[in-house]
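>> received
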Amino acid sequence: MSETKGNHRDQIDRYVNEEMNEGERLEFEQRMREHAELAQAVHMHRDVLQGIEIYFLKQLKEQLMLSDQPKKSSLPLWAIILIGLVTAGGLITLMFYLNVF
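>> returned
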């Protein structure tokens, strides 16, 4: 994996998480306007993060609903969270490997 690709991932993550200062943000937005692949990667990153959030909220809702019912043998909450994190990590990794800068 190239250093440039890793740098793009770091910058995308910082941009999406609003961790850039104004100058960095403006420069990054200009690069997105100039490079459609970068803009696409940012949108994909946001979509993946949104999908992960929706997945976890759905899992939480299901767990809360199940907690109101009599206990059945099921996976403990920590196992569900671990499975979700592993799945999310795999999705993010796949997303970055599919992007070419």
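>> Residues 15 and 28 are 8 Å apart (CA to CA).
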